[in-house]
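>> Question from a student workshop board

For tomorrow's exercise we were told to take the sequence and the ligand below, predict the bound structure, and bring the output to class. My setup keeps failing. Could a helper post the expected result so I can at least see what it should look like? The ligand is iron/sulfur cluster.
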Amino acid sequence: MKYPKLRELLEAIRAVAKGPYTSKFPKQAHVPHRNFRGQPKFDEEKCVGCLGCEEICPVEAIDHEDVLDDPEGPKRVMIHYTDTCIFCGECEAACINDHQGIKLSDEWELSLFERSEAYETIEKELVLCEMCGEPIACKDHLLWISDRLGELTYSSPTLYLTRLRELGVVDENLLENIPDQGRSDRVKVLCARCRRKTTLTTED
Ligand code: SF4
Ligand code: SF4
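>> Workshop helper replied:
Here is what the output should look like for this input. Compare the format with yours to find the bug.
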């Protein structure tokens, strides 16, 4: 006959005194352990829509869609597929905004009748190039960069115009009256390609 090991014996005694390790779910609501790694959740306020987590996710559980023709303005929809996620936490570790844009939660009850409903989304305001209309970045991402650059923000019209618009101190009428297709186009919110075009142009 094999005798139980000391550790197993101690655990059995502890279980008699403290009750079983398993919970009485579904009779009683289950409270996960404090170190439980549950489904990651986006924080709409703290996520800046940089797509870093989408790049790092090993199973492509994060995706995005840029909606340019929304009546309320262009937006980036960040999508987390809860049925694909393996709860590895790489997205949280890689998040550029102090690991706060997406965080593992203690949510564990994820069953659904329809697998197609197994996703969650947040929306971020998107900034478009004022010449070609292509997406540049989310407004919060440009402001995040500007915060880190400090006064160097004023070396990039895209950054300082986004910052000044946020402060409500840009005269849009003045900007509209500046002639197009010349060097004056540099004082606009531009993508890298259009910035290069306006910088290298020979027209006045
Ligand atoms: S926890 Fe891992 S698998 Fe899930 S979204 Fe984050 S990086 Fe992807
Ligand atoms: S801010 Fe964080 S959560 Fe948001 S897109 Fe970037 S890496 Fe992902």
